């Protein structure tokens, strides 16, 4: 049945892009004005619709890029130095080479052997396998970040190319996606708006809000309570207000967090300052009360000011159990289930998910450096595998207590070689997991593509992924109150290495002190009683 | 037995005593809440009020120290061994038999020898312990700037501050009770209110 086979092609990114765009479409009746957010291209000194280079028909994305490069001679070279292009980043402290290309995450696991689908979110064209040439300038995708029309869509399965020909999507759904008018998009270019960044970052992990918990489509038109900086009726920041960009290098990456910035707010001209840190605008002594400012020695701003994340009905995913994938319905066919809030809960292709809204973060010491599991790293089952773990501790001056989202799950691993496996999930070929429901074939193909040995034996192991939370800053009225941490069973009850009034104290001192007070009281009462009795006798 | 009245506590002294008493009781109340012993005002308010009370007490003490030195009243706290044994015997035996108080206060020596010792202990040990630790507790955020970051730990500062508070609590209980051991059970308290002490 070709229609069913096609339906099976729906992948991680598929649902993503669809939800993404329908959310935007529903939310913004006039895309040309409100999609731009705070960085309207109307303020630009150049009207790209008047450029003769762009007044023509474009057949492909790379053709548009070539037109862009006529004027923006350095743009592609700049992009090619960024993570948006390389999907790779080396930790400046540890040297570990991470990035989407190399790590295994807790969602769709690995991009290797699944490039055709995953690259729907790559700022480039044609990355379909390991042979992709990262030096070709025309393959840089300018439009995914600069489209001002809201019509530029990249669907899974096309290795990062947009829709050139009207296509049914998802396959077998009866819904169609029109071919993009590349000329119109090229003439609409603008500074990246929320919807440009959000088209990938809101929908990572395969569904709206799934991945981050502090980023989802609600940031398109947030109310004040959800995000004080991005609130449409308030400051109306766009993403790049904080993630200010120079030469296409975007500041403020999770791969290299400035966890404990100190000092004054940055002043103009100081280009070394990372504008994405709270302190860049607020300094590390932003409160009127000195006592609150003292807290910045130990606590990240986010800890008090993001008391909960996913503060909406979209919610965020808290676990993904891949071991439940390939469980079929009673009729032997693919089975899908949603939770009470309408979020994906089970899919024979992918396994089982758990979601939550208004999530209380888990708190960790964090010095800005995380360690990731990269493809081929040895693991130690049945101990849960830490796919990403935040570094730091109480004795490290560069560490602060941060709120984190911990995403838990189960993933396959090679029981002989003791590595997490790379599996070929997306596609319509003979070994894709989502098409054949056969782990053995999917892993064998994935491991081969990754150049790793596979013993042929696999099992599932628990996994954990810890990410700092930093977006959706709440109004100050909603910040944590003192007693939410300063109490015996408060938010920070498991944080070691600091003394917290009301949480801590010497048990022995308490016993000794109260005994002293009690004995004194008993002593004077007995003394007084004897005096009273004796004076009555005498009287 | 004739009852005589002596003027022992001057106006400022009485003001100092009662305002200090109220502040100390209030600080014990809020302090132990900050310590986590119970919930009364709520942690945030307890901290704020404890701090305000502390600064008020600092202000009061500035005046009190000035007063003590300009009036020479500080000499009232010079310890003496004279009659200490007699006082101890009075509190442990004589008082039950209605024996006369072995000490007769005067303007120049208003405190009995045990009082002198006890108050000196409060002034020279419990007080400074609380002041010193409290100061560092309050200015925790400045440790780095002061260069004491590596020398102190909040845990121990808090430990000794709490220990001082327990000692102050024990002192307070004993002190309140001992006010009843005058000529009549209320004569000491009356003296601290009016300034005039009734003596045997």
Could you outline the blueprint of secondary structure elements for this entry?
The complex is a heterodimer of chains A (539) and B (200).
Chain A (H helix, E strand, L loop, with lengths): L1 H6 L4 H16 L3 H4 L26 H11 L3 H5 L3 H4 L2 E2 L6 E2 L16 H4 L24 H4 L20 E2 L7 E2 L4 H6 L6 H8 L37 H4 L2 E2 L2 E2 L28 H4 L7 H5 L6 H5 L10 E6 L14 E3 L5 E4 L3 E6 L5 E5 L3 E3 L12 E6 L9 E15 L4 E2 L12 H4 L2 H12 L7 E11 L38 H32 L1
Parallel strand pairs in A: 7-14, 13-16
Antiparallel strand pairs in A: 1-2, 3-4, 5-6, 7-10, 8-9, 9-10, 11-14, 12-13, 14-15, 14-16
Helix pairs in contact in A: 2-10
Chain B lengths: L3 E4 L3 H24 L8 H29 L12 H14 L15 H26 L4 H4 L7 H25 L8 H8 L1 E4 L1
Antiparallel strand pairs in B: 1-2
Helix pairs in contact in B: 1-2, 1-6, 4-6
Helix content of chain B: 55-70%
Rg on CA atoms of chain A, Å:
28 Å
As for the number of domains of chain B, it is 1
Please estimate the helix content of chain A: 10-25%
* Low-pLDDT residue spans of chain A: 1-41
Tally of DSSP β-strands of chain B: 2
- Which percent band covers the strand fraction of chain B? under 5%
Helix count of chain B, per DSSP? 7
Number of strands of chain A: 16
In DSSP terms (H or I, runs of 4 or more residues), the helix count of chain A works out at 17
Average residue pLDDT of chain B: 92
Instruction: Let me know the average pLDDT of chain A.
Output: 91
Properties at a glance:
heterodimer; A: 539 residues; alpha+beta; 2 domains; ten-stranded mixed beta sheet; two-stranded antiparallel ribbon; globular; B: 200 residues; mainly alpha; 7 helices
């Amino acid at each position: 049945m070709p229609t069913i086979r096609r339906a099976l092609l729906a992948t991680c990114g598929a649902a993503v892009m669809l939800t993404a765009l329908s959310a935007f479409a529903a939310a913004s009746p006039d895309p040309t004005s409100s999609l731009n957010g705070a960085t309207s291209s109307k303020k630009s000194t150049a009207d790209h619709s008047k450029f003769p280079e762009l007044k023509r028909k474009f057949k492909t994305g790379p053709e548009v890029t070539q037109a862009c490069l006529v004027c923006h001679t350095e743009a592609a070279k700049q992009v090619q130095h960024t993570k948006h292009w390389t999907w790779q980043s080396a930790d400046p402290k540890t040297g570990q080479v991470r990035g989407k290309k190399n790590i295994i995450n807790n969602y769709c696991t690995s991009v290797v052997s699944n490039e055709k689908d995953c690259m729907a979110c790559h700022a480039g064209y044609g990355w379909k396998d390991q042979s992709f040439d990262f030096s070709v300038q025309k393959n840089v995708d300018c439009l995914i970040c600069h489209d001002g029309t809201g019509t530029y869509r990249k669907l899974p399965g096309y290795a990062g190319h947009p829709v050139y020909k009207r296509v049914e999507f998802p396959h077998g759904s009866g819904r169609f996606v029109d071919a993009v008018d590349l000329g119109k998009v090229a003439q609409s270019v603008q500074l990246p708006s929320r919807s440009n960044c959000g088209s990938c970052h809101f929908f990572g992990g395969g569904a709206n809000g799934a991945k981050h918990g502090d980023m989802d489509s609600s940031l398109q038109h947030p109310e004040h309570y959800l995000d004080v900086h991005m609130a449409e009726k308030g400051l109306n920041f766009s993403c790049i207000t904080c993630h200010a960009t120079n030469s296409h290098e975007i500041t403020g990456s999770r791969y290299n967090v400035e966890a404990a910035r100190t000092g004054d707010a940055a002043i103009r001209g100081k280009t070394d300052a990372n504008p994405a840190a709270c302190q860049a605008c607020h300094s590390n002594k932003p409160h009127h009360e000195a006592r609150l400012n003292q807290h910045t020695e130990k606590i990240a701003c986010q800890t008090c000011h993001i008391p909960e994340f996913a503060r909406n009905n979209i919610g965020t995913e808290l676990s993904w159990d891949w071991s439940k994938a390939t469980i079929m319905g009673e009729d032997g066919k693919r089975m899908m289930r949603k939770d009470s809030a309408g979020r994906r809960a089970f899919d024979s292709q992918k396994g089982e998910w758990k979601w939550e809204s208004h999530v209380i973060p888990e708190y960790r010491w964090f010095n800005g450096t995380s360690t990731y599991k990269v493809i081929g790293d040895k693991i130690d089952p049945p101990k849960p595998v830490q796919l990403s773990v935040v570094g730091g501790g109480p004795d490290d001056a560069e560490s602060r207590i941060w709120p984190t989202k911990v995403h838990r799950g189960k993933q396959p691993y090679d029981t002989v070689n003791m590595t997490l496996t790379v599996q070929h999930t997306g596609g319509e070929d003979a070994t894709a997991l989502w098409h054949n429901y056969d782990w053995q074939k999917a892993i064998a193909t994935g491991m081969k593509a990754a150049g790793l040995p596979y013993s042929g034996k696999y099992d599932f192991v628990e996994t954990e992924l810890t990410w700092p939370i930093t977006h959706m800053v709440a109004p100050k009225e909603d910040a944590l109150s003192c007693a939410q941490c300063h109490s015996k069973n408060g938010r920070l009850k498991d944080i070691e290495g600091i003394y917290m009034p009301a949480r801590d104290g010497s048990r022995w001192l308490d016993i000794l002190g109260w005994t002293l007070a009690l004995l004194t009281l008993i002593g004077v009462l007995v003394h007084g009683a004897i005096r009273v009795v004796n004076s009555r006798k005498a009287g | 037995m004739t009852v005589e009245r002596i003027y022992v506590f001057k106006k400022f002294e009485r003001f100092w005593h009662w305002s200090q008493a109220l502040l100390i009781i209030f600080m014990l109340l809020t302090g132990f809440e900050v310590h986590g012993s119970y919930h009364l005002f709520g942690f945030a308010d307890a901290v704020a009020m404890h701090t305000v009370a502390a600064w008020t007490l600092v202000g009061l003490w500035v005046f009190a120290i000035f007063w003590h030195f300009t009036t020479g009243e500080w000499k009232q706290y010079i310890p003496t061994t004279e009659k200490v044994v007699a006082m101890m015997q009075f509190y442990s035996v004589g008082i039950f038999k209605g024996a006369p108080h072995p000490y007769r206060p005067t303007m120049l020596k208003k405190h009995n020898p045990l009082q002198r010792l006890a108050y000196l202990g409060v002034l020279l040990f419990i007080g400074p312990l609380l002041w010193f630790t409290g100061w560092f507790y309050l200015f925790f955020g400045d440790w780095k700037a002061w260069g004491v970051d590596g020398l102190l730990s909040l845990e121990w500062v808090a430990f000794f501050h709490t220990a001082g508070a327990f000692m102050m609590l024990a002192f307070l209980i004993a002190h309140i009770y001992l006010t009843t051991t005058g000529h009549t059970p209320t004569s000491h308290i009356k003296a601290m209110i009016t300034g005039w002490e009734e003596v045997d």
